[in-house]
Write a structure and sequence with these properties.
By secondary structure, the protein is α/β, with parallel strands linked by helices. It has a single domain, classed as Phosphoglycerate mutase-like (Rossmann fold), CATH 3.40.50.1240. Strand 2, helix 3 and strand 3 form a beta-alpha-beta unit. The longest helix has 22 residues.
Length: 203
């Protein structure tokens, strides 16, 4: 059986607006983020979801609740979907985080050069975690459910989408980045991503 997985990035938060690295800090949605989740609800209203897997962080879980409001769809908090950890750099500005003089130079501009700060996750570690999510959580879920919605974060969903695309070098990590409230999809058949099924920016 072929199943379809939709994946959605959480709505905007105040730290998104301020350009801060959120990582695993639990920042709630801003007003615009709630609006983005409402817009996503309208885009997804014709899809009969059986299950939603959400990051446990409130900005993702709130997005899932708004996007699925009024529907009898279970929303399960999945720890493996929590955002990439930035360790001691959480709360820093994006500009400072990726600057030439930073120990973590290149996070967004040259991710292949990125060195995680103390307590943070490298891209390889993030991929390992999302591979576990795919194999241990997502594949069993789609074997039982035809339509699954995954709500998570920018880096997490880049890793998932890049895997669905057949694997991309870390230098191209951000090629799959969704905007806040953005939605993508891919299809799974017998636990394998169907060729050419990845779609980004559903509208």
């Amino acid at each position: 059986m072929r199943s379809k997985v939709y994946f959605m990035r959480h709505g905007e938060t105040y730290w998104n607006v301020m350009g801060k690295m959120q990582g695993q800090v639990n920042i709630p949605l801003a007003a615009k983020g709630c609006q983005q989740a409402g817009q996503a609800a309208r885009l997804l209203e014709g899809i009969s979801f059986d299950l939603c897997l959400s990051s446990p962080l409130s900005r993702a879980y709130e997005t899932a609740e708004i996007a699925l409001a009024g529907r009898d769809v279970p929303i399960v908090k999945e720890p493996l979907l929590i955002e990439q950890a930035y360790g001691v750099a959480e709360g820093d500005s994006h500009e400072g985080f990726s600057s030439q003089g930073s120990a973590v130079f290149g996070y967004e501009t040259q991710p292949e050069l990125y060195v995680a700060p103390i307590g943070g996750e490298s891209f390889d570690q993030l991929y390992e975690r999302i591979r576990r999510f795919f194999d241990e959580v997502l594949v069993p879920a789609v074997q039982a459910h035809a339509h699954v919605l995954v709500v998570a974060h920018g880096a997490v969903l880049c890793a998932l989408a890049n895997m669905a695309a057949g694997g991309r070098p870390i230098a191209s990590f951000w090629k799959s980045k969704l905007p806040n409230g953005g939605i993508g999809s891919f299809e799974l058949e017998s636990g394998v991503v169907a060729p050419e099924s990845l779609r980004l920016r559903i509208s």
